[in-house]
Amino acid sequence: DHTVLYPGCRDALDALAEQGCKLAVVTNKPEFLSLKLLSELGIRDMFDSVLGGDTLGPGRAKPAPDMIHQTIALCGGEGAFAMVGDSSFDVRAAQAAGAPCIVLSFGYHDAPPHSLGAEAVIDHFGDLIPTLEELAAR
After folding, report:
1. Which of 1, 86, 97, 120 has the fewest CB atoms below 10 angstroms from its CB?
2. Are 63 and 31 in contact (CB under 8 A)?
3. Taking a C-beta distance cutoff of 8 angstroms, is the pair 129, 15 a contact?
């Protein structure tokens, strides 16, 4: 009832979609709850894939790389992938999958954001696309 998108999130999603990016959700929360929340927020249809911690079965949730590998396959298996997250589970899953990770300085954290080992930390969703472009240029 009280969940809202972070400032700039919808704009960033719209801009990425306009650029032809495939968008996905990879969360350790149960899939059915994630789908319900995304629907309630009016953004479910923006995502090509939504995987919850229970989707692939026991032992395959983050920080295992399995959900990232499955997401890439569901999104066509081509192109670059980057994880955007806020916890060590996100960073470790990305590292295990050989993918870059951008950490949000806001949201849930199980450790200080700059200590998580991501390729970048951003303070606002307005910084997401320039940061993705910077990572792609490396």
Report:
1. 1
2. no
3. yes
